[in-house]
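Pipeline run #58 for the internal structure catalog. This entry was flagged by the ingest filter as a single-chain record with no existing model, so it goes straight to prediction. Upstream metadata was stripped on purpose; only the residue string is passed forward. Reviewer on rotation: M.T. Logging verbosity set to normal.
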Amino acid sequence: MSDRRQTKTATVYRMVMPDHVCPYGLKTVDLLKREGYAIEDHHLETREETDAFKEKHGVATTPQTFIGGKRIGGYDDLREHFGKSVQAEDETTYQPVIAIFAVAFLLAMAITWYVFDALLTVQTLEWFVSLSMALLALQKLQDVRSFSTMFLNYDLLARRWVRYGFVYPFGEALAGILMVAHALPIISVPVSLFIGTVGAISVFKAVYIDKRELKCACVGGSSNVPLGFVSLTENLFMIGMGLWMGARALGWITV
């Protein structure tokens, strides 16, 4: 098997300059090695050499891979050649939200283990939701201007009061952090209920009534997460958490 694999050879042309090594070139070489190819690695060491290569082969980018004398193309083309998935630039994905919720749940379990020497308690779910709120807010706060612009596409209150798009992530972060500590429910509960309710109504109207296909600003302004069920779930979580923490603060629920 190893002998057969060694007969497979690929030729790669990639930028390797004193002040820049193309990251996609490194990924191309790594992918080919993992697929069992011996590599003829040609470095393009100057801008002039790179431009001449592009002009000769009629390509706009490097790296370029050749297998069996046939040009495969760049890194994404090589992935397609090996039957691997390639995400289009504008393709929607739930991956950012899944990652945030997964990390929040694992953090909640870790805190529960440290505090209660158990993995799952009622507090685990409380910390899961509150940590999710804080992490989602963090994503928005990385670029508040970009978030607020995308937010204007569907949020009903932000369309009437544009500054709400700037206030929202700070409110979400404040409510989430206070709820992690079970502190100042007089602040966290109303904030969570307010932004959750306005958000839920806005998402429901945009997606299920107006039938609009929009990207959600829930994980920041550069998000490719589709506006829909996940966005509505986020807001319903905030409403539910607000009601739950409010009932606990009033003594209606004891844990």
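catalog note: The beta strands are 9-17, 20-21, 38-44, 64-67, 70-73.
catalog note: The chain has eleven helices and five strands.
status: ready for reviewer M.T.
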